[in-house]
UniProtKB/TrEMBL annotation:
GO terms for cellular component: cytoplasm. Pfam families: Radical_SAM. It comes from Pseudonocardia alni (Amycolata alni). This is Probable dual-specificity RNA methyltransferase RlmN. GO terms for biological process: rRNA base methylation; tRNA methylation.
Amino acid sequence: MSSLPLVFDAPRRGTPPRHLADVDPADRAAVAQELGVPRFRLDQLARHWFGRLTDDLDTMSDLGGDVREKLRPLLPPLVTPLTEKACDGGATRKTLWRGHDGVLAESVLMRYPDRATVCISSQAGCGMACPFCATGQGGLQRNLSTAEIVDQVRRAAAQARDGVLDEPTRLSNVVFMGMGEPLANYKRVVAAVRRITEPAPDGLGISARGVTVSTVGLVPAIDRLREEGIPVTLAISLHCPDDELRDTLVPVNNRWKVAEVLDAGRRYATTTGRRVSIEYALIRDVNDQPWRADMLAKVLRQHIGTSRVHVNLIPLNPTPGSEWDASPKPVEEEFVRRVRAAGVACTVRDTRGQEIDAACGQLAASHPG
């Protein structure tokens, strides 16, 4: 087995301060005692932060001034917006965030006719080293905390509510497809999913069926996730059906091969009842050949089954100076036709934000310093 540039524990930089979103609701009584306030005061704070989507203590009029000061340590500033860019007539908005220790992460808020979705980061950088991904080429700085992850969603929900996407709407979908490998930050990501899906005052109240967690194929973590009892959608970033090419495109394939990853996907679908999404970035003259479309459909039928899987083709959003480019439209259309002809559901992801560095990691890579 070849050596891997694979990192499961991020290098430790400045550990983010404890935040309300890091505290499990079952632990609120102990935290309240530590802060010298009654337990219900933490529930009041949580109703503001999770329910009203505000982090401004000074507007929480049901909390007296002395109580607010005692609670202030639970709402430390975690991330600061450095850059915000909008496009698609205001329907897409990308934000570059800086953590308290200077690390960068990105999120993208998007409005569609039937929903509003935020794509969030789970790590600052990524250690999976996929060569066509801008984030992967930048390496891993550290894991994001539970609160840093959840705060991306809370801020996006507030922005959507307040009409930043050209008109007010409700945030309904969350996808862990921004910077980082979510299952390499397993404990914090699962805690964040619980905060996102639990109703206020314990969470943001977004349906678990509206949450998608992606992975390049960390098989033990997929099996662990299926036992959590949270019916989120699992998205597997496969990108090619054959081990020879995937060893290069997705280096983790050197550890867990295509068949192992898809078998884990089948187990997840069987346990949760949720259809697995197969993410496939279509790259010109690399993984877009007709025979690979046929092979993709074949391995999915063999290992997961047509009723439990859906292929999501992603036109590559090329990064400046990269050798990788998107497949021509006729090639894309033929790829879709072949996968569908084999009985496997296949759609092409709506491309958003090419003019605002919307490919994962582009905005961070272009930021000075």
